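During the second half of the funding period, the structural biology subgroup turned its attention to how the target accommodates small molecules. The most pressing case was HDE, which had performed well in the primary screen but for which no bound structure existed. We therefore specified the complex as follows and requested a full 3D prediction, including the ligand pose.
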Amino acid sequence: MAKSPAIRKTADKPRSTPSTTPSPDTQRGNGDELQQQAGGDHPVMTTQLGIPIADNQNSLRDTPRGPTLLEDFILREKITHFDHERIPERIVHARGTAAHGYFELTESLAEFTTARVLTEVGVQTPVFTRFSTVAGGAGSVDTPRDVRGFAVKLYTQEGNWDIVGNNIPVFFIQDAMKFPDLVHAVKMEPDRGYPQAGSAHDTFWDFVSLMPETLHMVMWAMSDRTIPRSLRMIEGFGVHSFRLVNAEGKSTFVKFHWRPKLGIQSTVWDEAVKLQAADNDYHRRDLFEAIEAGNYPEWDFAVQLFTEEDAAKFPFDHLDATKLIPEELVPLRTIGRMVLNRWPDNFFAETEQVAYCPANVPPGVDFSNDPLLQGRLFSYLDTQLSRLGGPNFAQIPVNAPKCPFHNMQRDGHMQMQVPKGRVNYEPSSLQGDTPRASLAQGFKHFAERPADDGAKGRVRAESFADHYSQARMFFRSQSEVEQAHMASAIVFELSKVATVHVREAVVGHLQHVDAALAQRVADGLGMDALPPAPAAAVQPQDMPLSPALRIIDRMKPTLEGRCVGLLVDDGSNAKSVATFKKAVEKAGATVKIVAPKVGGAKMDDGSRLPADGQLAGTPSTVFDAVASILSTEMGNKLSREAAAVDWFRDAFGHLKAIGACPGSQAIVQAAGIEPDAGVMDPKDSKAFIAAAQTRQWDREPKVRTLA
Ligand code: HDE
């Protein structure tokens, strides 16, 4: 009888009725047996305290079919640790994906700051960058319509610098006081526990309708920026004005920007919705696969620099986080780049435990009086105390600085350091090696002029009162296609709002943004009359337009970083497949083979081409463009296969290039596709590559009605 070694060793009394039938688990083999089976040079498994474990399959039983013994310290330790594996997820930005990399300065800002990371050209500073959605929980999907967090931790020689930004340059609210209300409104409703990860519900839009300061960011949220194609193709913004401070103590205001080398690219809404079904982890997988393949995503780092005097001339208050500084007003200066080139070893240890805080700045960088930023300076440290369980979270490897650090902070939960000596205070005279503050090297706060603009009070500056002008500028700066997408997004979201007066109030506000937009949305919602516009504290102004805020015009016509799906089946022409693949890969894209069976397809020359994805589980939504190389026989067969028909139909609807071979024509017809300039024979790889570098915007009116 194959008994587990653990039972044999620890059962002290032989039982009178031993089990004669071994359980499947005891048959599976244990300890040394398993060690040998697995091969390799495995270390012996131990408890947390190093006690070697002989059997990791069976708990200690009183008899083979009797109760489990409390004495089983190995079982108890294992289960107890498991019971405590989770920590509270982030209140916002819970769903995130991160990677390691480096920042390299290409132009010195020595004139403006003492920060070494911004003055030492060519030095590579390690970074850890986490992207996130805002509203959904940690297990929610990657592609809802949502703002993306863009948080960069730079491990500089003068301490950690966290630029904790978003992929949108403005924020919903002006004062930290409103943040809990905003977040409560956008997250799932508290009584029903839904919707998860989306703003298309009554409480969010109720809040919007009552807080006109949200309008500018709402316009961004309804743009295609919030349905990105890839985390590698989003911009990042520090949002607030910060300060740079030079050796003379002079301050210059600065806004931080990250610009993706691959260009910005978004999905279309129907695609984003279908991606939620196709692949919950679409963005995480995309980043992982790119880094694993050595296609390291890269961003330019740029700054907008301006003085107090410049700021006084802006037709808005730069301390108001609902306002951006158009780059036509203050140009961007590219001073560095960030490359992400290493996937974390462990998701929990790094991506989950990383603790960003906008208050982490090196000497030479300082804060502005933006009231939203001021609130954030407090919030992030505070949230880590409950999320990570105590004051020593900075000792977690991903959070620890990579420069020397010394202080007199001691003890606390989970203290990992063992400070030596009797001196844990300062000043002291008993030890020669204790840390001391340094006036020369230490952080100097910018010595600001005392404010002379009024008395203390719970007030909102009058310069913050214009809520519509920049919303208008943003909307009117967009291309026609983008405006139509925004109008349709608002119609979609408000159509999910059951409360009629909330829908009406939002459309009322839109009249201040753009009367034609308000009318389009009203029509899209089936309203008989345009609801009245509310009184505006300040009449909106027509600001100069900022074409730099568009996506479509700035999309890079490239296949770099993109992925093309190629559908094959038994009998596909091996030569055509190889030629197509080579040409598209040469243009920079990855080609993934899709076939009805994951084992692949038998080509016409008898060779077998393994598939990267099975057709039913790999819809065209996960690709930037698609092509097919099929025999007529297989094409006819697949034209009766919903997954194949949808593959083409969705690619067409999502404005993608389609390289459909003659053998696929039955599927193309079943999908109701009327071929246009974006549909061609994949033999013409040149035409395919040209079309795949962008989306077929002209096709859109043929496939959907936009507001
Ligand atoms: Fe955050 N924010 N936030 N936020 N935020 C958090 O910190 C907060 C704001 C942003 O990948 C929390 O560690 C307040 C603006 C990102 O780990 C919390 C206010 C911007 C991340 C918090 C804001 C952001 C967070 C939740 C208004 C763009 C994820 C967990 C005063 C510039 C960082 C945590 C990561 C996370 C508070 C507004 C970006 C609760 C009080 C504006 C990218 O501390």
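Two results from this model are relevant to the next phase. Residues 558-703 form a domain with the Rossmann fold fold (CATH 3.40.50.880). Residues 509 and 533 are 6 Å apart (CA to CA).
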